[in-house]
Design goal:
By secondary structure, this protein is mainly α. The chain has one domain: Orthogonal Bundle (434 Repressor (Amino-terminal Domain)), CATH 1.10.260.40. Helices cover 55% and strands 8% of the residues. It is built from 5 helices and 2 strands; from the N terminus they run βαααααβ. It has a two-stranded antiparallel ribbon. Helix 2 packs across helix 3. The longest helix is centred in the last third of the chain and has 11 residues. The radius of gyration is 13 Å and the shape is globular.
């Protein structure tokens, strides 16, 4: 998938555990885990806003576009 989620990287940079993030923004640890693994089809802007506010970062610090090599003809 060309969208890469770097939430785990940002959590490590901020020295924050998934459990702490989940409690702070009002989602479950399982939801944080799914976000970190990129196994979600989408994320609400409200949730993204809360994550960015808590981690003091920009959305681009959490997600990035990396095209598949097979897509570039």
């Amino acid at each position: 998938m060309p969208i890469v989620v770097d939430l785990d990287v940002m959590l490590a940079r901020r020295k924050v555990r998934s459990k702490e993030l989940a409690a702070a923004i009002g989602i479950t640890e399982q939801q944080v885990s799914l976000l970190k693994s990129g196994k979600v089809k989408g994320v609400r802007f409200e949730t993204l806003e809360k994550i960015c506010a808590f981690l003091e970062c920009q959305p681009g610090d959490l997600i990035r576009y990396e095209p598949d090599q097979s897509d570039t003809n």
